[in-house]
Amino acid sequence: MLTWIKNHKIATIVIIVVLVLGGYYYTHQTKPEYTSYTVETGTIKDTLELSGKVSAEGMAVLRFPTGGLITYLGANEGDTVKKWQTLASIDSRQVQKTLEQKLNLYAIQRGTFEQTIDDNDNSVPDADLGRELKRLLAQNQYQLENTVKDVEYLDLSLKLTRLSSPLSGILVKSPIKTSGVNVLATDTWIVVDPTTLYFSADLDETELKRVKIGMPVEIKLDAYPDQTIKSAISSIAYAPKETTSGTVYEIKLAIDESDLESLRLGLNGSATVILLEKKDVLRLPSSALTFEGVKSSVYVKNGDDYDPKEIEIGIENDGFVEIIKGLSQNDQVYSPKTN
Fold first, then answer.
1. Domain that holds residue 25
2. What is the pTM of this model?
Protein backbone atom coordinates (compact mmCIF):
# COMPACT_ATOMS: atom_id res chain seq x y z
CA MET A 1 0.00 0.00 0.00
CA LEU A 2 2.80 2.39 0.96
CA THR A 3 4.57 1.47 -2.23
CA TRP A 4 1.44 2.33 -4.28
CA ILE A 5 1.13 5.68 -2.49
CA LYS A 6 4.78 6.49 -3.17
CA ASN A 7 4.33 5.60 -6.83
CA HIS A 8 1.06 7.59 -7.14
CA LYS A 9 1.72 10.76 -5.17
CA ILE A 10 -0.39 13.01 -7.40
CA ALA A 11 -3.38 10.67 -7.33
CA THR A 12 -3.07 10.36 -3.59
CA ILE A 13 -3.07 14.13 -3.15
CA VAL A 14 -6.17 14.48 -5.34
CA ILE A 15 -8.04 11.83 -3.33
CA ILE A 16 -7.13 13.52 -0.05
CA VAL A 17 -8.32 16.93 -1.33
CA VAL A 18 -11.62 15.45 -2.53
CA LEU A 19 -12.22 13.74 0.82
CA VAL A 20 -11.47 16.93 2.75
CA LEU A 21 -13.72 19.09 0.57
CA GLY A 22 -16.51 16.51 0.65
CA GLY A 23 -16.37 16.33 4.42
CA TYR A 24 -16.41 20.09 4.69
CA TYR A 25 -19.40 20.38 2.35
CA TYR A 26 -21.27 17.66 4.24
CA THR A 27 -20.70 19.27 7.63
CA HIS A 28 -21.35 22.80 6.40
CA GLN A 29 -24.18 22.12 3.94
CA THR A 30 -26.51 25.14 3.71
CA LYS A 31 -29.87 24.37 5.22
CA PRO A 32 -33.01 25.86 3.56
CA GLU A 33 -34.23 29.13 5.01
CA TYR A 34 -37.80 29.52 6.23
CA THR A 35 -40.19 32.45 6.50
CA SER A 36 -42.23 32.56 9.68
CA TYR A 37 -45.94 33.37 9.91
CA THR A 38 -48.29 33.83 12.85
CA VAL A 39 -51.84 32.51 12.86
CA GLU A 40 -54.18 35.48 13.36
CA THR A 41 -57.89 36.25 13.47
CA GLY A 42 -59.53 38.37 10.80
CA THR A 43 -62.18 38.59 8.09
CA ILE A 44 -62.30 36.47 4.95
CA LYS A 45 -64.75 36.90 2.08
CA ASP A 46 -65.85 34.52 -0.64
CA THR A 47 -66.43 36.74 -3.68
CA LEU A 48 -67.46 36.68 -7.32
CA GLU A 49 -65.98 39.14 -9.82
CA LEU A 50 -68.22 40.53 -12.57
CA SER A 51 -67.75 43.17 -15.24
CA GLY A 52 -70.32 45.71 -16.35
CA LYS A 53 -71.13 49.36 -16.93
CA VAL A 54 -73.31 52.21 -15.70
CA SER A 55 -76.79 52.23 -17.23
CA ALA A 56 -80.09 54.01 -16.48
CA GLU A 57 -83.66 52.92 -15.78
CA GLY A 58 -84.99 56.27 -16.99
CA MET A 59 -83.72 56.58 -20.55
CA ALA A 60 -85.57 57.49 -23.74
CA VAL A 61 -84.28 57.11 -27.30
CA LEU A 62 -86.36 59.37 -29.55
CA ARG A 63 -86.63 59.95 -33.30
CA PHE A 64 -89.05 61.37 -35.86
CA PRO A 65 -91.11 58.80 -37.80
CA THR A 66 -90.03 60.57 -40.99
CA GLY A 67 -87.26 62.97 -41.83
CA GLY A 68 -87.75 66.65 -42.47
CA LEU A 69 -86.57 70.22 -42.01
CA ILE A 70 -86.04 71.25 -38.38
CA THR A 71 -87.92 74.51 -37.83
CA TYR A 72 -87.61 74.63 -34.03
CA LEU A 73 -84.90 73.40 -31.65
CA GLY A 74 -85.94 73.38 -27.99
CA ALA A 75 -82.80 71.97 -26.34
CA ASN A 76 -79.16 71.32 -27.09
CA GLU A 77 -77.01 68.38 -26.09
CA GLY A 78 -76.15 68.59 -22.39
CA ASP A 79 -79.21 70.68 -21.46
CA THR A 80 -81.56 69.75 -18.63
CA VAL A 81 -85.07 69.15 -19.96
CA LYS A 82 -88.48 68.78 -18.33
CA LYS A 83 -91.06 66.09 -18.92
CA TRP A 84 -92.98 66.66 -22.19
CA GLN A 85 -90.69 69.53 -23.17
CA THR A 86 -90.43 69.87 -26.95
CA LEU A 87 -86.92 69.00 -28.09
CA ALA A 88 -87.39 69.76 -31.79
CA SER A 89 -90.04 70.23 -34.48
CA ILE A 90 -89.97 69.53 -38.19
CA ASP A 91 -91.77 71.62 -40.83
CA SER A 92 -95.51 71.14 -40.26
CA ARG A 93 -96.96 73.84 -42.52
CA GLN A 94 -98.14 71.45 -45.22
CA VAL A 95 -99.67 69.10 -42.67
CA GLN A 96 -101.35 72.03 -40.89
CA LYS A 97 -102.92 73.34 -44.10
CA THR A 98 -104.16 69.89 -45.10
CA LEU A 99 -105.62 69.39 -41.62
CA GLU A 100 -107.52 72.67 -41.89
CA GLN A 101 -108.91 71.60 -45.27
CA LYS A 102 -110.03 68.25 -43.87
CA LEU A 103 -111.68 69.95 -40.88
CA ASN A 104 -113.64 72.16 -43.28
CA LEU A 105 -114.61 69.12 -45.33
CA TYR A 106 -115.68 67.34 -42.16
CA ALA A 107 -117.95 70.26 -41.26
CA ILE A 108 -119.52 70.13 -44.73
CA GLN A 109 -120.01 66.36 -44.62
CA ARG A 110 -121.47 66.55 -41.14
CA GLY A 111 -123.91 69.24 -42.20
CA THR A 112 -124.94 67.29 -45.31
CA PHE A 113 -125.50 64.13 -43.30
CA GLU A 114 -127.61 65.87 -40.66
CA GLN A 115 -129.59 67.76 -43.35
CA THR A 116 -130.38 64.50 -45.15
CA ILE A 117 -131.73 63.02 -41.93
CA ASP A 118 -133.78 66.14 -41.16
CA ASP A 119 -135.25 66.25 -44.67
CA ASN A 120 -136.49 62.68 -44.46
CA ASP A 121 -137.03 62.06 -40.77
CA ASN A 122 -140.54 63.51 -40.54
CA SER A 123 -141.82 62.84 -44.05
CA VAL A 124 -141.45 59.08 -44.23
CA PRO A 125 -141.50 56.58 -41.33
CA ASP A 126 -138.17 54.82 -40.84
CA ALA A 127 -139.71 51.44 -41.54
CA ASP A 128 -140.96 52.64 -44.92
CA LEU A 129 -137.75 54.28 -46.17
CA GLY A 130 -137.02 53.23 -49.69
CA ARG A 131 -133.88 51.45 -50.67
CA GLU A 132 -132.60 54.52 -52.50
CA LEU A 133 -132.93 56.69 -49.41
CA LYS A 134 -131.18 54.07 -47.27
CA ARG A 135 -128.31 53.94 -49.73
CA LEU A 136 -128.07 57.73 -49.62
CA LEU A 137 -127.88 57.79 -45.84
CA ALA A 138 -125.33 54.96 -45.79
CA GLN A 139 -123.19 56.77 -48.37
CA ASN A 140 -123.28 59.98 -46.34
CA GLN A 141 -122.35 57.99 -43.22
CA TYR A 142 -119.31 56.42 -44.92
CA GLN A 143 -118.15 59.77 -46.26
CA LEU A 144 -118.47 61.28 -42.80
CA GLU A 145 -116.49 58.44 -41.20
CA ASN A 146 -113.74 58.70 -43.81
CA THR A 147 -113.48 62.43 -43.20
CA VAL A 148 -113.19 61.81 -39.45
CA LYS A 149 -110.38 59.31 -40.04
CA ASP A 150 -108.58 61.78 -42.32
CA VAL A 151 -108.77 64.43 -39.61
CA GLU A 152 -107.51 62.02 -36.93
CA TYR A 153 -104.62 60.89 -39.15
CA LEU A 154 -103.56 64.44 -39.94
CA ASP A 155 -103.87 65.44 -36.29
CA LEU A 156 -101.58 62.54 -35.36
CA SER A 157 -99.15 63.51 -38.13
CA LEU A 158 -99.13 67.06 -36.80
CA LYS A 159 -98.34 65.82 -33.30
CA LEU A 160 -95.53 63.65 -34.66
CA THR A 161 -93.83 66.71 -36.13
CA ARG A 162 -92.97 67.62 -32.53
CA LEU A 163 -90.43 65.54 -30.62
CA SER A 164 -91.09 65.70 -26.86
CA SER A 165 -89.23 64.18 -23.93
CA PRO A 166 -91.33 61.64 -21.97
CA LEU A 167 -89.24 62.23 -18.84
CA SER A 168 -87.25 64.87 -16.99
CA GLY A 169 -83.49 64.55 -17.28
CA ILE A 170 -80.50 65.48 -19.39
CA LEU A 171 -80.37 65.50 -23.18
CA VAL A 172 -77.20 63.43 -23.56
CA LYS A 173 -77.35 63.11 -27.34
CA SER A 174 -78.67 65.35 -30.11
CA PRO A 175 -77.88 64.94 -33.82
CA ILE A 176 -78.04 68.69 -34.52
CA LYS A 177 -76.94 71.95 -32.93
CA THR A 178 -79.18 74.41 -34.76
CA SER A 179 -82.52 74.60 -36.55
CA GLY A 180 -82.87 74.98 -40.30
CA VAL A 181 -81.20 71.67 -41.11
CA ASN A 182 -82.67 68.40 -42.32
CA VAL A 183 -82.75 65.26 -40.20
CA LEU A 184 -83.30 61.65 -41.17
CA ALA A 185 -85.69 59.15 -39.63
CA THR A 186 -82.62 57.34 -38.23
CA ASP A 187 -81.32 60.39 -36.30
CA THR A 188 -81.84 60.00 -32.55
CA TRP A 189 -82.14 62.10 -29.42
CA ILE A 190 -81.37 60.45 -26.04
CA VAL A 191 -82.67 61.73 -22.71
CA VAL A 192 -81.44 60.22 -19.43
CA ASP A 193 -82.74 60.71 -15.91
CA PRO A 194 -79.48 60.81 -13.87
CA THR A 195 -81.29 59.90 -10.65
CA THR A 196 -82.02 56.43 -12.08
CA LEU A 197 -78.43 55.38 -12.83
CA TYR A 198 -77.45 51.87 -11.79
CA PHE A 199 -74.61 49.42 -12.47
CA SER A 200 -75.46 46.64 -14.91
CA ALA A 201 -73.36 43.46 -14.77
CA ASP A 202 -73.53 40.21 -16.72
CA LEU A 203 -73.80 37.02 -14.67
CA ASP A 204 -72.88 33.74 -16.35
CA GLU A 205 -75.59 31.10 -16.14
CA THR A 206 -73.21 28.75 -14.29
CA GLU A 207 -72.98 31.28 -11.43
CA LEU A 208 -76.72 31.97 -11.23
CA LYS A 209 -77.30 29.62 -8.29
CA ARG A 210 -74.63 31.37 -6.20
CA VAL A 211 -76.15 34.86 -6.09
CA LYS A 212 -79.28 36.24 -4.47
CA ILE A 213 -81.06 39.59 -4.37
CA GLY A 214 -79.75 41.70 -1.51
CA MET A 215 -76.17 40.37 -1.52
CA PRO A 216 -73.65 43.18 -0.85
CA VAL A 217 -71.48 44.32 -3.74
CA GLU A 218 -68.45 46.58 -4.11
CA ILE A 219 -68.23 48.48 -7.41
CA LYS A 220 -65.04 49.91 -8.88
CA LEU A 221 -65.16 52.04 -12.03
CA ASP A 222 -62.26 52.27 -14.47
CA ALA A 223 -62.58 56.06 -14.43
CA TYR A 224 -62.25 56.20 -10.62
CA PRO A 225 -59.93 53.32 -9.63
CA ASP A 226 -59.43 54.64 -6.08
CA GLN A 227 -63.16 54.91 -5.35
CA THR A 228 -65.27 52.00 -4.07
CA ILE A 229 -69.06 52.23 -4.34
CA LYS A 230 -71.02 50.16 -1.84
CA SER A 231 -74.10 48.56 -3.35
CA ALA A 232 -76.32 45.48 -3.34
CA ILE A 233 -78.05 43.29 -5.91
CA SER A 234 -81.46 44.87 -6.54
CA SER A 235 -82.67 42.52 -9.29
CA ILE A 236 -81.70 39.49 -11.36
CA ALA A 237 -83.14 39.21 -14.86
CA TYR A 238 -85.49 36.34 -15.66
CA ALA A 239 -84.78 36.45 -19.38
CA PRO A 240 -81.22 35.64 -20.53
CA LYS A 241 -79.25 37.33 -23.25
CA GLU A 242 -76.84 35.68 -25.62
CA THR A 243 -73.25 36.92 -25.85
CA THR A 244 -70.13 35.69 -27.59
CA SER A 245 -69.09 34.03 -24.32
CA GLY A 246 -72.41 32.23 -23.74
CA THR A 247 -75.68 32.79 -21.91
CA VAL A 248 -75.71 35.53 -19.26
CA TYR A 249 -78.27 37.24 -17.04
CA GLU A 250 -78.27 40.94 -16.22
CA ILE A 251 -78.05 41.85 -12.55
CA LYS A 252 -78.80 45.40 -11.46
CA LEU A 253 -76.86 47.06 -8.67
CA ALA A 254 -78.43 50.11 -7.05
CA ILE A 255 -76.28 53.22 -6.62
CA ASP A 256 -76.77 55.55 -3.67
CA GLU A 257 -77.76 59.12 -4.45
CA SER A 258 -74.55 60.42 -2.84
CA ASP A 259 -72.49 58.55 -5.47
CA LEU A 260 -74.48 59.67 -8.52
CA GLU A 261 -72.92 63.10 -9.11
CA SER A 262 -69.64 61.83 -10.55
CA LEU A 263 -71.19 59.04 -12.62
CA ARG A 264 -71.88 59.08 -16.34
CA LEU A 265 -73.82 56.74 -18.57
CA GLY A 266 -71.68 53.95 -20.02
CA LEU A 267 -68.79 54.04 -17.52
CA ASN A 268 -67.13 50.62 -17.41
CA GLY A 269 -66.08 48.86 -14.24
CA SER A 270 -66.12 45.71 -12.13
CA ALA A 271 -68.41 44.47 -9.38
CA THR A 272 -67.29 42.24 -6.52
CA VAL A 273 -70.25 40.27 -5.18
CA ILE A 274 -69.69 39.20 -1.56
CA LEU A 275 -71.12 35.68 -1.51
CA LEU A 276 -69.99 34.91 2.03
CA GLU A 277 -68.21 36.91 4.72
CA LYS A 278 -66.66 35.35 7.83
CA LYS A 279 -65.44 37.56 10.65
CA ASP A 280 -63.02 36.72 13.49
CA VAL A 281 -61.81 33.48 11.92
CA LEU A 282 -58.31 31.99 12.06
CA ARG A 283 -56.35 32.78 8.94
CA LEU A 284 -52.91 32.66 7.35
CA PRO A 285 -51.44 34.20 4.22
CA SER A 286 -51.74 31.86 1.25
CA SER A 287 -47.94 31.90 0.90
CA ALA A 288 -47.61 30.15 4.28
CA LEU A 289 -49.24 26.97 2.99
CA THR A 290 -48.01 24.11 0.85
CA PHE A 291 -50.56 22.42 -1.39
CA GLU A 292 -50.33 18.86 -2.67
CA GLY A 293 -53.48 17.85 -4.51
CA VAL A 294 -56.39 18.36 -2.11
CA LYS A 295 -54.11 18.37 0.93
CA SER A 296 -52.86 21.53 2.63
CA SER A 297 -49.99 21.73 5.09
CA VAL A 298 -47.62 24.08 6.88
CA TYR A 299 -44.21 23.59 8.48
CA VAL A 300 -43.83 23.69 12.26
CA LYS A 301 -40.53 23.88 14.10
CA ASN A 302 -39.33 20.77 15.93
CA GLY A 303 -36.00 21.57 17.57
CA ASP A 304 -33.65 22.46 14.73
CA ASP A 305 -35.88 20.81 12.14
CA TYR A 306 -39.04 21.86 10.32
CA ASP A 307 -41.72 19.21 10.01
CA PRO A 308 -44.79 19.37 7.72
CA LYS A 309 -48.20 19.41 9.40
CA GLU A 310 -51.44 18.81 7.55
CA ILE A 311 -54.27 21.26 8.28
CA GLU A 312 -57.88 21.79 7.18
CA ILE A 313 -58.72 25.03 5.38
CA GLY A 314 -61.87 26.89 4.34
CA ILE A 315 -62.43 29.78 1.96
CA GLU A 316 -59.60 31.76 0.39
CA ASN A 317 -59.60 35.37 -0.79
CA ASP A 318 -57.44 38.50 -0.92
CA GLY A 319 -54.30 36.46 -0.23
CA PHE A 320 -55.59 34.83 2.97
CA VAL A 321 -56.80 31.31 3.76
CA GLU A 322 -59.25 30.36 6.50
CA ILE A 323 -57.85 27.81 8.99
CA ILE A 324 -60.56 25.41 10.15
CA LYS A 325 -58.56 22.72 11.95
CA GLY A 326 -54.99 21.96 12.98
CA LEU A 327 -53.76 25.33 14.28
CA SER A 328 -54.58 27.84 17.01
CA GLN A 329 -54.31 31.59 17.28
CA ASN A 330 -50.73 32.90 17.59
CA ASP A 331 -49.21 29.58 16.45
CA GLN A 332 -45.96 30.03 14.53
CA VAL A 333 -45.70 28.26 11.19
CA TYR A 334 -43.04 28.32 8.51
CA SER A 335 -42.68 28.16 4.77
CA PRO A 336 -39.48 27.44 2.81
CA LYS A 337 -38.08 30.48 1.09
CA THR A 338 -37.93 30.24 -2.67
CA ASN A 339 -34.93 31.53 -4.59
1. 1-29
2. 0.64
